[in-house]
Amino acid sequence: MSIVSYRRTFKQIFKGVWVRVLSRLAYFSFPYQVTVFLHKLRGVKIGEKVHISRFVFIDDRNPELVEIGNGVAITIRVMILCHQRDLSQYRPDMYAMECPFKEGKVIIKDGAHIGIGAIILPGVTIGEGAVIGAGAVVSKDVPPYSLAVGIPAKVVKTYH
After folding, report:
1. How far apart are CA 48 and CA 92, in angstroms?
2. Number of Cβ atoms within 10 Å of the Cβ of 5
3. Which of 28, 106, 127, 155 has the smallest CB count inside 10 Å?
4. What is the pLDDT of residues 46-79, one digit of tens each?
5. What is the pTM of this model?
6. What does the longest C-alpha to C-alpha distance in the chain come to?
7. How far, in whole angstroms, is CA 138 from its chain's centroid?
8. What is the spatial distance between Cα 45 and Cα 58, in angstroms, rounded to a whole number?
9. Residue 64 dihedral angles phi and psi, to the nearest 5°
10. Cis ω before 63 (30° cut-off from 0)
11. What is the pLDDT of residue 12?
């Protein structure tokens, strides 16, 4: 993951506003084909036959860091994040907001299924055919054809 500063050019600010407007439209849109189209406009890389429900939040700072394969299902209220605070230098005499962001790609491979309300954190790859249980918080890679559940998500079953 890389560390990023706050400074932005006018072009970056304008792009950020545009991406966030599209993000809000995608969040409330339906049917799912419109939702997928709007996320593609934002820069999310999305394969064929992908279903993204309403009320799905895909990182609005770096949507281009999200890659979604073919035949993926992302259910309602899922959050996919590509940035978070780097708290490695955090100490009692500072505000957490002073810490820079660290960013990482999120890759969801072909045929994966992301359950209701799951949260996918930066730098995670979800393997082909993997299933993420409802409400799981995925902070580490999930192998192909496995079921990951819980907080933090742990693999509880592998499909052969």
Report:
1. 48
2. 7
3. 28
4. 999 999 999 999 998 899 999 999 999 999 999 9
5. 0.89
6. 51
7. 10
8. 11
9. -70, -10
10. no
11. 81
